Amino acid sequence: MPNGVILSGVEGRVGVLALQGDVDEHLAALQRCAATAIPVKTPADLARVDALILPGGESTTVMKLLERCGLGRPIVERTRAGMPLWGTCMGMIVAAHDVLGLEQPTLDLIDITVRRNAFGRQNDSAKVDLAIPALGGVPFPAIFIRAPWIERHGPAVELLAQREGHGVMAREGNVLATSFHPELGTDARVHRYFMEMVSQQGKASTAA
Ligand code: GLN
């Protein structure tokens, strides 16, 4: 068995940034989809993966840790070169162009402005049946925990889902962002959607 998963004939190893947050849940969700899932803690780990997930957690902490581990720059360089990247909740905040009221620099990988904790605090966490046409007609059971929403998006960004009139899932080329946590539920459609992005990228780089 090779070390990567076969995705429509293309191998891909999916890394999960493992500095803080719900890393194990993403690794388990990827394994349930038969993907090769690797925790990423160092630039050397990053060099071994074909795609990266930034999990849920605490964005201000993770932005500091990214700097300290020397991972911020290589993540930006790899993503700008085409590596598929998906941020869930905290990951959406870290990947955003900017964050309302936050001075700390983000990775600026998707042209969105986000508002943190936009749907309320911990007690306002909710499971919402979300219409996501890109995933088919069945609503997605989306878990929101101190979730951000998208306040502004650039022209190249496609909004894939909205809650209460605010963007909560968006894609710009090889970068995907969700305000909610597919890794905490059992519906694997968003993980599969991301793996399809990985597969497409694999085919594009093989063809190049
Ligand atoms: N509110 C958190 C933050 O701003 C994100 C919460 C989450 O990832 N569930 O970093």
Structural summary, described in words:
Helix content is 28%, strand content 32%. It is α/β, with parallel strands linked by helices. The strands form three sheets. Strands 1, 2, 3, 4, 5, 11, 12 and 13 form an eight-stranded mixed β-sheet that branches. Strands 6-7-10 form a three-stranded mixed β-sheet. A hairpin with a 2-residue loop joins strand 12 (166-172) and strand 13. The longest helix has 19 residues, at 189-207. Mean pLDDT is 93; it is low at 1-10. The protein binds glutamine. The site of glutamine (GLN) has 11 residues, from helix 5.
Briefly characterize the structure.
This protein has 208 residues and is of the alpha/beta class.
List the helices and strands and how they pair.
Layout lengths: L4 E3 L2 E8 L5 H10 L3 E5 L2 H5 L3 E4 L4 H10 L3 H9 L4 E4 L1 H6 E4 L10 E6 L10 E5 L9 E5 L4 E5 L4 E6 L2 E7 L2 E4 L10 H19 L1
Parallel strand pairs: 2-3, 2-4, 4-5, 5-13, 6-7
Antiparallel strand pairs: 1-2, 7-10, 8-9, 11-12, 12-13
The structure holds glutamine.
